[in-house]
Amino acid sequence: MHPAFSVVFFTTATGTGYGLLALLGVLAGPGFVPPDFWLGLVGMGLALGLISAGLLSSAGHLGRPDRAWRAFSQWRSSWLSREGVASVATFVPAGLFATGWVVLGRTDGWVAVAGLLAAVGAVITVCTTGMIYRSLKPIAQWHSRYTLPGYLIFSAMSGGVLLNALLQGFAIGSTILLAGCMLLTLLGWGWKLATWRYNDRLEIATTANTATGLAGGTVRSLEWPHTEENYLLKEMGFRIARKHKARLRQITQVLAFALPVLLLVAVFALPWPYAAVLSTLAAIVQFAGMLVERWLFFAEAKHTVTLYYGR
Amino acid sequence: MTCLPAHTDKKLGLVIDLDTCVGCQACVTACKEWNTGGHMAPLTDIDPYGGDVDGVWFNRVHSYEHITEMGGRTVNFPRSCLHCETPACVTVCPTGASYKRTSDGIVLVDEDKCIGCKLCSWACPYGAREFDTDVGVMKKCTLCIDRIYNDNLAEEDRVPACVAACPTSARHFGDLGDPASAVSQLVAERGGVDLMPELGYHPTNKYLPPRAHTTRAASVLAPALEAVRAEGGFLGWVDRMLSN
Question: Residue A97, exposed/middle/buried by CB under 10 A (0-12, 13-18, 19+)?
């Protein structure tokens, strides 16, 4: 599948943003995160900023963005529509939560309830994003049990590492959160390795034989219907990443998982401001790694239509 | 609505005979010619006379080499929308632009509602949908709804343009939901198959596999210049002389 940058950035940015929003929504109520004005402004600004930037980026992927409002109508059947509804609905409790925290300076009572609702909305939205890919049967690498948990784990992981950077920046870092971030990053690493292992061993039932209805023997593409690349090949026949698969997987592992874990280990031992600098670096490096991971998620996915072209 | 109808009154579709298709591309050009002025018009061509040609087509004919223990042969393979009974291209549509008609089972796109998210083309395993980059919406085969119900055409012309154009009658149009229809009987008689049945889209269109190789003629796998049968008489004498 062609990795359109707008979609790669959209899923990565909203994943991190919803992860951060969910953690802030859950942790601010019980007082784990203090109702500080600047912390609220920067934290909620980051979360809602990442989510909004991602959603705007996804609208850039559309052929007719002026009609994007129509996408809220078919939630009965379409995961993409459900994602649209869930993402917009989540802005309501998230907006109330941000207002209570930043304007009224409190994260208890109804503000805490709004925070919890925003967290629920964030989790649901990430689930709908994962299900868009999980539900596509023609792409075996996506139509697997690894896809949905992957989106949830990576959202919690990148959101957690960003929250840690935020709290370390305000010199109120917690070792529990730090340990949690390390565990989530290791979990994400393991999940990604398991996903790759599963994809590499995948035996896809759909072949050139079943695609053409020609039973038995071998079916070899002799001639394409056209001499130039068409929409199908540009959108679904992307091949560059398969050539550099091993190298890109290494880059993903270093940036998204290995380097952040090492940086977080160092944060345990360092005082502010060094802890803040390394925590911020961990979040930035991990975000870059997740962009590569998401790029590979698309580029490694093979659509059944490529069988018609002998690929 | 992108929810699928529980039942369609008819299952209009095509039956494509891979035995008689000669790969002449007449159906391809007839489709383009009709539909670029039809229901889903235009079928945009980008840079049609330049070096980087691209454009929207509803029907494309591939050529394959199929080799079995019985020998090898070239199979020409027209590929277009199969108007599936459970088309995921419809259910994934977030706007309601994609729909399956209850009356005849034809899968269509309402161009005025399409936002061009391209998800339907990802959900179609057959590559039936093509994005029009110029208009910014998705396009697909309409089974020529503007021909098959067109009172202005003579009755024999009320078939899809690809069917009307086929010089070898490799394309047949009819109601595959009616077991008594000519197309259903053809499918039963010739063992018509679904494409990618394992994905569960239940395509309406059927493909008739090439007929089995005949056993009456010399095997196409016989080595070149090998005597077909031991020659006697004059030809046998020539063969012996030339073999010395």
Answer: buried
- pLDDT tens per residue, range A96-121: 999 999 999 999 999 999 999 999 99
Q: Is the CB of residue B153 less than 8 Å away from at least one CB of chain A?
A: no
Q: Which residues pair with B66 in a beta bridge?
A: A219, B73
Count of domains observed in chain B: 1
Distance CA A137, CA B120 (A): 12
Chain B from 175 to 234: CB within 8 A of any A CB: 193-201, 207, 209-210
Spell out which residues of chain B touch residue A63, defining contact as CB-CB under 8 Å: 114-118, 131-133, 135-138
Residue linked to tokens 């042969």: B73
Q: What kind of architecture, by CATH, is found in domain A5-60+71-213+224-309?
A: Up-down Bundle (1.20)
**Cβ neighbour number for residue A231 with a 10 Å cutoff:** 22
- pLDDT tens across B16-26, in order? 999 999 999 99
Cα distance between residue A40 and residue A26, in whole Å = 14
Q: What is the ipTM of this complex?
A: 0.95
- Tokens representing A163 are 């929250």
